[in-house]
Amino acid sequence: HDDVVPHLLPDVLVHCRAGSAPVVVHSPCVSVAGRAAPPRLCAVFRGILEPLPVEGTMVGQWQLQHQNDVISKLTIRMSNSCTRLNLALVGGGRSCVADLRHACSGSEVGRTASEADASLHETWLYASLPSQELDLRVQLMHGDTLLVQFRQQAEGIAELSSQVRTARAVRKRDFAAMIGECPKKEQPDTYRSRVFTRQLAVSNLWHLREEEARATRRRPADRTPAEQSLVRRLASRVDSEIAFAEEKLAAL
Fold first, then answer.
1. Nearest Cα residue to 63 out of 83, 40, 90
2. Whether this model's pTM surpasses 0.85
3. From residue 188, how far is each of 106, 164, 218 by CA, in Å?
């Protein structure tokens, strides 16, 4: 429409009318030679657009300059499911990506930061990068300033952290099935085919006494009252050892 032409300022207009051939009309801003004028810039990008994170949506990227003039870059991004907030050192690969967490509460691991935490100001979020032997914490200040603090991990913390993660995984997967905590009940043949592999995984972390091994070879539903009591004491011992390791890790 003619009334919107002054606002759009197109290089070329094509007028169409029924029964007539299209008529091409050049805009007054076109040069005498008939070439279109250079397009006007309507927006300017500022900042680093590439490389974008391999996964998830970028929240922001900051440049860190250390006291010795070494410059590195740090990215904060959302996971694909928008349920976790990640921290990544640019160029470090997957070993330099970690979930951001809130501060620990006693022996409890701090909850994972989520999408809602991406805009929190003056709240510390923590991350651990065992591959770099670094602990970091970040805080979004007013505006777009990110306060970053880091320290070298205490000796042995990376190994202890790996042990705690392994213990949690075995406790949740193999040990839970052995003591009957899994909601899905296995058939007798299925349990018997898997029990030795599970016992091996558990015994690599916690010593299984002979009577405990014998009791856990039987399906939870088939155990005698004495065996059930023995398995409950075993579960209490395993949970206590995991809690002790978590407390030790939190104190480092």
1. 90
2. no
3. 41, 31, 9
